[in-house]
Structure formats: C-alpha cells, structure tokens
Design goal:
By secondary structure, the protein is an alpha+beta fold. The chain is built from eight helices and four strands. This is SMC-Scp complex subunit ScpB.
C-alpha cells in the first residue's frame, strides 16, 4: 500500500497583499481589524481568484506581515481587537531616556481606574464603597479627558446613576487585546514575608526618651476631597 501525500492546505499570502496590509497597519492611527483588512483586500482586487476562504487568507497575510518584523525594533501586535505597530517590548525601557514621558496618573486616579476595569460597569457610589473613601469629580474628569473610561448607560435604581466602564483607548494604552488579558486579581496579591522592619514586634521595649528639641515636626495629612453626589 502506497502512502498518498495529503494536499497542502496552507494558504499562501500574495506578496502584493502583504505589502498593502503592511502599509495599512502602518498608516492607521488606530488598531486595524481583520474585517477592515478583508474589505481593503477585496476593494483593491488583492484576493487571489482561487481563494475560497477569505478569513483564512486574511490571517495568512497578517502572519506574513508579523513574520517580516520578527526580531525588529517595531512589530505589528494585536491590540484592542485590531493590529497596530508597537515598539518592541524589550526596547521600550531604553527609549524613555530620550522620549518625553507622559504625565503620570495620581494614585487615587489609578485606584479608581483599576476598580472600574475589574468591576465594570459600576457607579460612582460603588467605586466609593470599594475604595472606602469619597470619589472626587476631578478623578473621573481626569480619566475622561485621558479617554480611559466611558459612560456605559445608567443603572436602573433611584437617581439612575451613570455606569462607568473602560474604553478602547484603555486597551491600547495598556497593550491589551481585550479585558480577558487583565491580570487575575489573585495574581496581584503579594505575600509579605516576615520581616522585622515591615512587621515589628507588637510590644517593643521602650527606648530612651528623645529630646523634644530634636524631634521632627509632626507630618500633616491632607483631608480627602468630598464631592456632593451627582444629580
């Protein structure tokens, strides 16, 4: 019995299609979806006549573009449901020396963003309940101005408060394909090892009294901002 070779099923990408899609991803300011790539290839007559599975052909073209940039300083990556050129991950830290660093978000703003990301859609009152402190309107305004959150309708409770969720820009900013790429909450928990500095004895022996003149001034803590609930 003679073995009969199986027909080759790999869809080969035409070089002209690869070149066109490479230019599309490079020129687009936003991630390019596979549907947009398929529409462009069809509109430009770049789909070979013998192709009966357009989706498979589009994926083969994308794979060819990705292969072109293997090991290069930039590469197309899947972000927020589409393809976009990004700096190679191992080179990004080196570029911060010469590139302008974007404005950092305050801790309260980052905490609020994290709560929205993991509990969306959620209301302002729910965010305050999780954080345990009141939420300044300035925090929400900062996240809105940065296009990191968007309103997701209103909750059907008295007052109908706005529901907040993360945006597509949130996914792009953090390099996520979708929300399933967020680290699991249990992965973020850190076990603090026993350390005499971090975990002092509950009742340490009293030390020598300090000269009041040598004592540092007491630190002051700013009061939390409290805004009236939205109307």
């Amino acid at each position: 019995m003679t073995d009969t070779p199986l027909p080759e099923t790999t869809v080969r990408a035409d070089p002209a299609s690869v070149r066109l899609v490479e230019a599309l991803i490079f020129a687009s300011p936003d991630p390019v979806s596979e549907r947009a790539i398929a529409e462009l290839l069809e509109a430009q007559g770049q789909v070979p006549a013998d192709i009966d599975d357009l989706g498979a052909y589009v994926r083969s073209v994308i794979d060819a573009v990705v292969a072109l940039y293997d090991g290069r300083g930039v590469a197309p990556v899947l972000i927020a449901g589409g393809w976009q050129f990004r700096t190679a991950a191992d080179l990004a830290p080196r570029l911060t020396r010469v590139l302008h660093r974007p404005r950092r978000l305050a801790r309260a703003t980052l905490e609020t963003l994290a709560i929205i990301a993991y509990h969306q859609p959620c209301t302002r009152a729910e965010i305050e309940e999780i954080r345990g402190v009141s939420l300044s309107q300035q925090v929400l305004d900062t996240l809105l101005e940065a296009s990191l959150i968007v309103p997701r309708g209103r909750k059907e409770v008295p007052g109908r408060p706005i529901l907040w969720g993360t945006s597509a820009d949130f996914l792009r900013h953090f390099g996520l394909r979708d929300l399933r790429d967020l680290p699991r909450r249990e992965e973020l928990l850190v076990d603090v090892p026993d350390n005499p500095v971090l975990n002092p004895a509950p009742n340490p022996a009293p030390g020598p009294a300090l000269d009041p003149a040598m004592s540092p001034p007491a630190a002051t803590t700013p009061q939390a901002v409290s805004d009236a609930p939205p109307t």
